[in-house]
Amino acid sequence: MTMPSLQTTAEFESKTLSVLSLTRKQFDTVSELARKEFGVELGEGKEQLVAARIGKLMRRLHFSTFREFYEHLQTDRTGRCLTQVIDSLTPNHTSFFREQAHFDFLLERVFPEWDGTRPARIWSTACSTGEEPYTIALVAHEYFGTRNRCVPTIVASDISTSALETARRGTYQAQHLQQATAPWLRKHLMRGEGRWAGWYRMRPEIIDSVEFHRINLIEPFPDLGHFDVIFCRNVMIYFSHATQAQLVNRLAACLNPGGYLFVGHSETLTGVQHVQPAIYRKRGALK
């Protein structure tokens, strides 16, 4: 690993910025890495986005050329550099109550099916910075809490370590919550004061109801047990058709009979009949 020495910050950043125009070979190298390590297809038109994100990572790690950076990536036995690449390239766009119809379906169709003899189990497979699993938790607390029944167990996972760190904190800026439509959302939030003015944090009972794990969806899953509901939304659009099919089969194996799989509205499972748009159900009945 070659570190910059005896050069000004301006000189170093100027030199590093030149790599933001990746050569075709360099872009193909990054694309193959992304496909192999976390299943993401970096197709045509993503060259500038990839170059910008890799360039930002290189500046943070103090590399001045792509060659030096990639050599370090290949020889780093700790895996930290690869994790940072994954964090840089993995899409993390999300929001509270994204695709509202799915949460309405939970309240109106799914939750009433459970008889309360055991807590339901829900998995948010690509949770990003936590908005999806916390939305599930909020909806679950509102429904089951008012009926004196067990709140579902919620497992959340993502491949990005930085996104998971944010998710575990459960702290968000006020403008990040403005699009949330549920009128009871704010009663589950604590308002920050002083240097935390303009921020909100989920109440402890909401944070404690979500269990976070780092999971790469294209690798074998850890033994998490079976689930009644699995959310895998807006992540498969970045995978090849073959990877999508493999992932759906593995997720189906993790569903209890009668369990539901929620995907993004821009994602379709070919040849599988949906219950509602982007909602699929495994044969059988929930117990």
Index terms:
single chain; alpha/beta; Chemotaxis Receptor Methyltransferase Cher, domain 1; Rossmann fold; 2 domains; 6-stranded mixed sheet; 39% helix; 15% strand
Task: Please describe what this structure looks like.
- The protein has 287 residues and is of the alpha/beta class.
- The chain folds into two domains: 9-89, Chemotaxis Receptor Methyltransferase Cher, domain 1 (Orthogonal Bundle), CATH 1.10.155; 100-281, Rossmann fold (3-Layer(aba) Sandwich).
- 39% of the residues lie in helices and 15% in strands.
- It has helices at 9-17, 24-38, 47-61, 66-75, 80-89, 100-110, 131-145, 161-169, 204-207, 241-253, and strands at residues 121-124, 153-158, 171-173, 189-191, 199-202, 210-214, 227-232, 255-263, 279-281.
- The strands form two sheets. The chain has a six-stranded mixed β-sheet with strand order 6-2-1-7-8-9. Strands 3-5-4 form a three-stranded antiparallel β-sheet.
- Helix 3 runs antiparallel to helix 5 (80-89).
